[in-house]
């Protein structure tokens, strides 16, 4: 502990012994430091806050959701500090007064980009910060410039939000209209090709789909006729079996008329059908002819058989003829449908290139028509969205806090810097004096001498001074204190000047 105490006393003695060196170094450091601090321009900052309104029921009805509008706002926030917008700020403020060349403009824009910030405090609250610390301007001019920059950024935000949306929507609609005209021409050309092809090949209407539909309908009808034919043949077989077990005549006197009268009536009916224009292929004519053939056979049989004709047999005979005629009619229709199916199939198989061409033309037409309809719908939606964005201003904002007029600089903190320079100067002076003392081979105490030589020190001789030397030392001490006090006075003056300048800006 005593050793540490001796070292401290030795250091203090060494510095005090060279106090003029310490004072000179302190003055040099303080003067240089305060000059540097004085050359640093004050930075004045202006702040403004804007509130963005995102709620709009009509906008949500047409598909402009809150997320879409948030993306629009974020895009505007990011592009607000773009080089183009910052160039507008430079030209419309005092910064553009000295700009003469493009290179100077580029330098001014890059410098301004470091001093302007747009930050999001909440979902729909933004803060714009603008700094101004140009050495060529006074403090009052820098303060005014910071406020002008912040106000210009708000104006650009308003312009980007309103006219920017309108211009972007106009360009989008112009592009969609151009695409619609092009698709319309292509659709008309495709429709003309399709109509010409279908006029030349009727079976290939709708890309061959009409022929395929008719073929499928014929096959379905053929399956239905097969079922009807099977049912008709079964019914005819059943009535034939029943007729085979029924006698033609019943015992008794033969009445007048009988089969011959029925034959005459049937012949008259056949003539009447021919008179109405029915052909021999008509099902009713075929059935009546079969009935006449049966009645002829019955009339011939009645000539050699005694007894009364059996009415049940005659009725069954008529039913069988009718059912046989139905079977024949179904078979005729079935043959005609089979012929149509064979013809359709031959067209499909025999002309694969024609079928492929028809399908390609139909496919191209359908694709162009769907694209045209989709573009038309998109254009109407875009037009409605644009009208809502421009007329109703789907994104509205208001200035919550207008740009502030700075009263004091935000940087640098000049009083703190002045104090720091003073402390650094005093510390540097003391350190310089101590370092010089360490370089010289002198000893301030007997303990250090004994420690350095390893020899015992018997005593120390006190310094004696004459009256003249004492007076000279007292004057030098006064001069030293005066120099130290002058350094303090200069520090106080600099602080006073700083606060006076701040008051002049306010």
Question: How is the secondary structure organized here?
Answer:
Layout: H1 2-17, H2 19-39, E1 44-53, H3 57-61, H4 66-80, H5 83-92, H6 102-113, E2 116-122, E3 125-132, H7 139-200, H8 209-244, E4 249-250, H9 259-276, H10 283-302, E5 308-309, H11 311-350, H12 352-391, E6 396-401, H13 414-439, H14 446-453, H15 467-505
Antiparallel strand pairs: 1-3, 1-6, 2-3, 4-5
Helix pairs in contact: 1-13, 2-13, 2-15, 4-7, 5-6, 5-7, 7-12, 8-11, 9-10, 10-11, 13-15
What does this structure look like?
It is a single chain. This protein is an alpha+beta fold and 506 residues long. Among the domains are: 2-40 and 412-505, no CATH class; 209-364, no CATH class. 73% of the residues lie in helices and 7% in strands. The protein has 15 helices and 6 strands. It has helices spanning 2-17, 19-39, 57-61, 66-80, 83-92, 102-113, 139-200, 209-244, 259-276, 283-302, 311-350, 352-391, 414-439, 446-453, 467-505, and strands at 44-53, 116-122, 125-132, 249-250, 308-309, 396-401. The protein has a 4-stranded antiparallel sheet. Strands 4-5 form a two-stranded antiparallel sheet. Strand 2 and strand 3 (125-132) form a beta hairpin. The two termini are 56 Å apart. Mean pLDDT is 77; it is low at 57-64 and 252-256.
């Amino acid at each position: 502990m005593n050793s540490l105490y001796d070292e401290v006393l030795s250091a203090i003695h060494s510095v005090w012994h060279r106090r003029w060196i310490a004072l000179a170094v302190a003055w040099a450091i303080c003067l240089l430091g305060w000059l540097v601090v004085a050359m640093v321009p004050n930075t004045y900052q202006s702040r403004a806050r804007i509130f963005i309104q995102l709620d709009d029921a009509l906008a949500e009805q047409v598909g402009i959701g809150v997320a879409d509008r948030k993306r629009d706002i974020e895009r505007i926030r990011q592009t607000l500090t773009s080089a183009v917008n910052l160039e507008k700020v430079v030209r419309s403020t005092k910064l553009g007064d000295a700009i003469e060349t493009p290179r100077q403009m580029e330098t001014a824009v890059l410098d301004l980009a470091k001093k302007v910030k747009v930050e999001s405090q909440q979902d729909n609250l933004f803060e714009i910060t603008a700094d101004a610390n140009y050495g060529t301007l006074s403090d009052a001019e820098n303060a005014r410039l910071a406020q002008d920059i912040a106000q210009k950024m708000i104006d650009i935000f308003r312009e980007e939000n309103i006219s920017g949306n309108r211009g972007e929507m106009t360009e989008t609609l112009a592009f969609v209209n151009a695409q619609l005209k092009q698709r319309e021409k292509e659709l008309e050309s495709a429709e003309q090709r399709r109509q010409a092809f279908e006029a030349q090949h009727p079976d290939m209407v709708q890309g061959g789909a009409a022929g395929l539909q008719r073929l499928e309908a014929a096959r379905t009808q053929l399956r239905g006729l097969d079922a009807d034919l099977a049912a008709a043949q079964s019914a005819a077989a059943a009535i034939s079996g029943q007729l085979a077990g029924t006698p033609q005549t019943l015992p008794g006197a033969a009445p007048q008329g009988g089969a011959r009268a029925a034959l005459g009536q049937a012949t008259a009916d056949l003539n009447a059908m021919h008179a109405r224009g029915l052909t021999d292929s008509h099902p009713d004519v075929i059935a009546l002819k079969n009935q006449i053939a049966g009645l002829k056979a019955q009339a011939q049989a009645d000539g050699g058989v005694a007894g009364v004709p059996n009415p049940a047999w005659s009725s069954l005979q008529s039913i069988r003829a009718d059912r046989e005629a139905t079977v024949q009619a179904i078979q005729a229709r079935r043959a005609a449908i089979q012929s149509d199916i064979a013809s359709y199939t031959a067209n499909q198989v025999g002309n694969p290139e024609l079928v492929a061409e028809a399908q390609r033309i139909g496919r191209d037409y359908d694709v162009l028509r769907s694209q045209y309809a989709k573009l038309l719908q998109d254009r109407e939606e875009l037009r409605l969205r644009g009208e809502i964005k421009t007329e109703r201003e789907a994104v509205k904002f208001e200035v919550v806090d207008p740009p502030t007029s700075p009263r004091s600089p935000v940087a640098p903190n000049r009083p703190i810097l002045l104090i720091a320079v003073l402390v650094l100067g005093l510390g540097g002076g003391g350190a310089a004096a101590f370092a010089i003392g360490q370089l010289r081979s002198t000893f301030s105490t007997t303990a250090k001498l004994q420690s350095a030589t390893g020899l015992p020190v018997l005593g120390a001789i006190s310094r004696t001074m004459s009256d003249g030397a004492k007076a000279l030392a007292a004057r030098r001490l006064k001069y030293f204190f005066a120099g130290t006090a002058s350094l303090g006075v200069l520090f106080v003056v600099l602080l006073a000047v700083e606060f006076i300048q701040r008051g002049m800006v306010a």
